[in-house]
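Intended use. Records like the one below are meant for learning the mapping from a protein sequence to its folded structure. Do not use them to infer anything beyond what is encoded.
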Amino acid sequence: MIDKSQGFSDAPPPYQHALRSSSDSKVNLCPTPNPSSTSLSKRHPKARTKAAAAPSRWFPTAIFGLSKTAKLVRTATQDFIRDLLSQARPSEHEWLSLLGNCADTCTAHGLSFSSILQEPFVEGHLPIYWAILKRPASKSASAAPAPAKMDYLMVPVPVASSDPDALVLAILDASLPLNALTVTDARLACVTVSDNALFVRLGQRYEAFSPRSGTDKVLLGGNDTVDTISVVETRGTSTGAGGGTAAAFTVHFSLTQFQLRMRVSKQARIEFIARGRLWYLAFSVAGVNTGPPLGTSRAGEWLVSLGLGENSAPAWVDGRLFIVDRSPAPPSTPDPPSVTHRHPHAGKNRNAASLPIKTSNYQIAPGGPAREVVVSLDKFLFGATLRNDATSFVDADGTLNAELEVKLQKTQDMDSNCVIC
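Structure written out for the chain above:
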């Protein structure tokens, strides 16, 4: 029997009862030579702590160490994880130690802890789903440092307890390599709680969550080529069709190596969560990766599209995309209406070209007849300049900075350049 109790002798009381309860019902598996010997779960706690090599009384290692059946080890592991997620607010010491001990014990019995974590054994969902749903709220979550990754066969390294994402990231690290079900369940959980900060963080930390194409992953491989995305949910200032103030949101984003991606990958795409929906904004080349050109678009035109991802409710869209122009605005020339606007987030003495992204007769919905709104950039004066190497709409390092403002309301002034498809 492997003793893994060293360093875990001071077990927090709240979790003690849950583990003792599980051990009483499932792990009376002691391979004792004497039939009259009592099981581990019924021995007096003090008797188990007297010997230096005695296992901790609140961790599953001692119980698992008595088991010779991998099936029972797997079942007990699931129960311990379920008990952990059922706690209102488990301490960092609890889940760090539990994950590490479960990983070691599964390995000792020839089981894959990673595979167990990626099974839907907690009320039809994976552990990661519930970890995200029960993640403590924090306004500074997006700025929290990422805990160091852990080897899923080793005891996890300590992480900052101030990081509200710590348990979520620890479970995902222990689940590597991630399968499709894990990604799907985690994305669903992020949409359910409308947590864009965590959603973006997962996309930057784990390749399986990244919306980038395979070509982009090769082209932009590296930690210094990360698209930045932030969402601010607001209340619209105008009244929607149903009366009252429409829900709204603003997305600030930067696309690294924008022109290079459009020329090589033929697209640059981001995903974000706002108002309980999963959205995508994609720049693409007509006729490439999008099928035949849409509406009046010609093959080779640059397009921008806004659509909804899976598990998202239909929505009306009344939006406008602003692309920051890095050239100084002429001091005596007014901006042309609906083409170039002075924009508060474009920086001091900067302009931002804009274009409408709107729906009128149909709501967009994932999998529905109207999936997205598509606008041709070539229909606007500034759109054609995006292709030029000397364009003022990208930084010196090739980054395009933009902002998307959306109100979830029906609009009556549908722009002819917006195609619903």
